[in-house]
Amino acid sequence: MEIPTIIGAGLIVIGAGLGLGKIGSSAMDAIARQPEAAGKIQTAMIIIGALLEGLAFGALILGKN
Q1: Is position 54 within any domain?
Q2: Which pLDDT belongs to residue 15?
Q3: What's the domain count of the chain?
Q4: DSSP run (H or E) holding 15
Q5: CB under 8 Å to 16, separation ≥6 — which residues?
Q6: What is the pLDDT of residues 10-51, one digit of tens each?
Q7: CA-CA distances (angstroms) from residue 52 to 3, 12, 13, 48?
């Protein structure tokens, strides 16, 4: 593996981690403000998290080639 590929993979992982952290933090804030909407908020959080992880995995696979 070449150095630019390793740096790119690291940036992808860092970006995905920051994104998932922001999603979780925002969801917990929203649930604290409106506990009755917890189900809808959790569903949206899971969908967005899955899409973000899929994007990160796709970028890692494309970066490897």
Answers
A1: yes
A2: 94
A3: 1
A4: helix 3-33
A5: 52, 53, 55, 56
A6: 899 999 999 999 999 999 999 999 999 999 999 999 999 999
A7: 25, 11, 11, 6
